[in-house]
């Protein structure tokens, strides 16, 4: 439930991608497993989490704290994903909340577990000719561990 800030910055070099000047881009945030062995069973792991915590989400945007995000969305079927539009020319900070802890996906649950590392992955897209945000611009990620 703790909110963590991620600043969205336009890191283009001068004159690079002038076609997105004055336009919005879309960023999709996902919390995924960092370890390769858990990535293979990610779908089953997330379904198990959904079954144990009905109605809860893994990832949310703290909208009142966030600055410069437009049309934030959380798809009800993708508990680990949020998305929003933003203007690269303006100051943009998104505050995310991760609602699962790293030890929820370890086998032994009697305290002292290491906990599994997650990865926050951010994919950014520009608007394509069809008006959808399908043209990939950039991806970034960082490893996180969440404990109470």
UniProtKB/TrEMBL annotation:
Parts of the chain that traverse the membrane: none
Entry annotated with the keyword Nucleus: yes
Coiled-coil annotation reads none
Indicate whether DNA-binding appears among the record's keywords: yes
Localization in the cell: Nucleus
> Which GO MF terms are attached to this record?
DNA-binding transcription activator activity, RNA polymerase II-specific; RNA polymerase II cis-regulatory region sequence-specific DNA binding
Q: Where is the signal peptide?
A: none
The residues covered by the Grh/CP2 DB domain are 1-148
UniProt keyword list:
DNA-binding, Nucleus
Lineage: superkingdom: Eukaryota
A GO-annotated cellular component: nucleus
Location, primary (coarse class): nucleus
Protein name, please?
A: TFCP2 factor
